[in-house]
């Protein structure tokens, strides 16, 4: 084999080695590109997941804040309504107390009111023996209407007239201009079962 043949053969071997090297390099490049794309996709998905989780967390915080704010506004509204109801009840109580005080100064009307209150109390208690408490200044008027009240109750309830004991302990007297904050009572009566003093009307 002469030098030209040897040189040609060497050149062919170098070409073959280069071709194999190029193919291998190309395979490595393609494989590296695939791995890079896979890793990049995984990183992107991981970041997307983090972003979604962060968004969900913030959305839940917003929802919780909204619920808290709504609850606070609802409670504030309820407090206003309750305050308004309380003010109205207080005003009605005060007005009723003044009206009752005015009625108590008109003996004829007040006697009729006392009798009606005693009958209503007896109808609610439905007891054969009752303790009645009134203001000290109303004792005489209560004793005046007591018999008629018992008879009316007995007729309405279809029972025997009950025993009514007028208590020696009295309700507070009418409000005083000298001491408007003192415990007072504008009038009326309180009835309780003698067997169960907690049952009061």
TrEMBL record:
Assigned protein family: Belongs to the V-ATPase E subunit family.
Record-level Gene Ontology MF annotations: proton-transporting ATPase activity, rotational mechanism
One annotated Gene Ontology cellular component of this protein: proton-transporting two-sector ATPase complex, catalytic domain
Gene3D superfamilies referenced in this protein's UniProt entry, alphabetically: 6.10.250.1620, ATP synthase, E subunit, C-terminal (3.30.2320.30)
Pfam families: vATP-synt_E (PF01991)
Protein name: V-type proton ATPase subunit E
Signal sequence bounds: none
Organism listed in the record: Ambrosia artemisiifolia (Common ragweed)
Keywords (A to Z) from UniProt: Ion transport, Transport
Top-level taxon: Eukaryota
